[in-house]
Amino acid sequence: MNHHKKEIEKANTFVEKKLNELEARSFQPVYHFTAPVGWLNDPNGLIQHQGTYHLFYQFHPYSEDWGPMHWGHATSKDLVNWDHQPVALAPSEDYDKGKPDEGYGCFSGSAVVKDDRLILIFTGHIDSKQPKEVQCIATTEDGTRFEKSPANPVISQPPESLSSDFRDPKVWFHEGLWYMVVGTSEAGRGGAALFKSEDLMGWSYCGLVAQSDGKLGDMWECPDLFPIQEKHALIVSPMNMNDGKNIILVGDMNYEQHHFVKDYFVEVDEGFDFYAAQTFLDEKGRRILIAWMDQWGTDFPTKKEGWAGAMTIPREITLNEKGEVRFLPVEELQFIRNEHERHSDVVVSNDFTPDMKGQSLEIKATFDLSNSNSDAFGIHVLKSEDGEEYTEIKYCTDTGEVMVDLNKAGKVSGVAIANIQKREELSLHIYIDRCSVEVFINDGEKVITNRVYPDSKSDRVEVFADQPTNLNQFNIWKLDKS
Ligand code: FRU
């Protein structure tokens, strides 16, 4: 048996054994994707092939900490119900398996379909090696068992001017050629290196397709370049950028000059727990984005339960008529709506409490801004009976900011803030799932995503306002997959 097969079998056997021993996970979300056991970070290889959605991810099956990187794999027919599949990639070769005490593995990458077969493109990483990062491919006959190409690495070193940080290939097909962007750094500034190929095996370097102007980070992880309506967008996860953690640059791509020019950039999400976003085009023509719903350097209270890491809900990304980027939950999430409670035209003076309680909920609320005298109003979710614990989603009339205050939310702290355009109405579309709160503001103008770790009994919802405020619409659903 070859090395890779052996390592895959070892990992699958371990996962299975661990699943049998596993104790209940108190923080397990209901409709967010998590690994069966162990550690998860970036989404990888997002693709739809023959109707089936594939989600691969950075996976360390052997513990709840980051470690030698494998690619976990799951499939879905509807982007909400995911079936775990065997581990797709495991470190096994001299380009992705290092010594026990160093960082190594099959780092982030993407997937394409060629001749109706799935192909994975990933970074082989070994801390102590020179170069430490190279690009590799893996193929499959059946969509679940993957073999690394004997031709690996297909890009065996970074072009001379680039740093040795050279990872996270995203590949796509355009007018007869394959293109790849790789996250890197040149002269201390983050950049995305562009390559092209006729066959996915031989690649030629076309230069940096885009680069930080000095303010957008010193290394770009997980680049993703794609058309969006008449424009192009480049998503990157910059390292060491002030006030930025995962940005989308909207602009134009010139394939002749191998150059992307940005018009503007914004954060993909204003919350603290959001990184390594990747997109794919599905068979309905939607551009769908999924990100790791966590961030490096944060605590993971779920580690006590033997797991860490979750994905955001899938979001559809579009440009509105003004060319501004919008993020909306995919419509499939409506399939898991259960019990429903609805109110309209409620004047909230002080507070208003719906009957429904829960830790896995969807809330859609619209507030009238035209005649509110409130300085602040909003919604408390995941609130305890004694009122001591809650996550606060608040609109400040003065500043026109939406704030998600985590200071009483449980095991986390901080206030995440999104500035929004002034309108007659404020709409909040909120997804709560045991240990996460995702807030979509004004039809996807801004999104704020955070992890919170409340008590399992903190299940109340409450609308509050410091002066009478008109709640135009209020809808709340229990979300449940069963
Ligand atoms: C981003 C990242 C990638 C890398 C992977 C390793 O979160 O640092 O650049 O490929 O995680 O797990």
Description:
The chain is mainly β and 482 residues long. It has 2 domains: 3-329, Glycosyl hydrolase domain, family 43 (Tachylectin-2, Chain A, 5 Propeller), CATH 2.115.10.20; 337-479, Sandwich (Jelly Rolls), CATH 2.60.120.560. It is 4% helix and 53% strand. It contains 1 helix and 31 strands. The chain has one helix at 3-21; strands at 38-49, 52-60, 70-76, 82-89, 104-114, 117-126, 133-140, 146-148, 166-174, 177-186, 189-197, 204-211, 219-228, 231-239, 247-254, 259-267, 275-281, 287-292, 307-308, 315-319, 325-329, 337-352, 360-368, 376-383, 391-396, 401-405, 415-419, 425-433, 436-441, 446-451, 460-479. The strands form 6 sheets. Strands 22, 23, 24, 25, 26, 27, 28, 29, 30 and 31 form a 10-stranded antiparallel β-sheet that branches. Strands 4-3-2-1-19 form a 5-stranded mixed β-sheet. The protein has a 4-stranded antiparallel β-sheet with strand order 5-6-7-8, with no helix packed on it. The two termini are 40 Å apart. It binds beta-D-fructofuranose. Residues 41-42, 58, 69, 107-108, 123, 167-168, 221-222, 275-276 line the site of beta-D-fructofuranose.
| Number of structural units classed as domains | 2
Helix content: under 10%
Calculate Rg over CA atoms: 23 Å
* Unreliable residue stretches: none
Proportion of strand residues: over 45%
The name of the CATH architecture of the largest domain is: 5 Propeller
Q: Helix count, per DSSP? A: 1
- Helix and strand composition category: mainly beta
End-to-end Cα distance: 40 Å
Bound molecules: beta-D-fructofuranose
CATH topology of the largest domain: Tachylectin-2, Chain A
CATH superfamily of the largest domain: Glycosyl hydrolase domain, family 43
Shape: globular
CATH class of the largest domain: Mainly Beta
